[in-house]
């Protein structure tokens, strides 16, 4: 609220033409206009229209700052995935203001993730998460130990570890952890 009331300045823009900067600037302008329509910042109108969007605004500012901090430090594919993963937070804005319809947004995110998939091992190494992963699929040794302990019934073919691993990593990376991984990579590089 203090940013909207201009009591606290917005952190300076280093790349004001970036998608994330334009999104943030638009949110600030829109919320300031809504706040101007209210009798005061403590008005019920402000409570109903502005306050519910303040978290989104702070997240937009944080995403823009993370992006700007990582420019030049991380490869373009990681940066593209980070930007595309932010579309999900406000898809209507990107559709209305940037001409990126829902399908285009999904394609951009999917393509960025696909370009990173061949480098997933390197990206995971950068995160240094292995000590925290308890799933046996994390290494061949742990996987083989796990498989050898399983009861077997009949002669049913078992998918190879690499196929299961690829499917699992693809799913987790694209749907669950992509934003967290990219954000974390940006933070550790800064």
What does this structure look like?
This protein is an all-alpha fold and 190 residues long. It is 66% helix and 0% strand. It is built from nine helices and no strands. α1 packs antiparallel against α3, α3 (51-70) runs antiparallel to α4 (76-86) and α4 packs antiparallel against α6 (102-116). The model has no long low-confidence stretch (mean pLDDT 79).
Overall outline? elongated
The end-to-end distance, rounded to whole angstroms, is: 28 Å
Number of helices: 9
H/E element order: HHHHHHHHH
Q: What profile does the largest beta sheet have?
A: none
Determine the structural class based on helices, strands and strand pairing.
mainly alpha
Q: What is the mean pLDDT? A: 79
The count of DSSP E runs of length 2 or more, i.e. the number of strands, is 0
Instruction: Name the poorly predicted regions.
Output: none
Rg, Cα atoms, Å: 22 Å
| Helical fraction | 55-70%
Beta content: under 5%
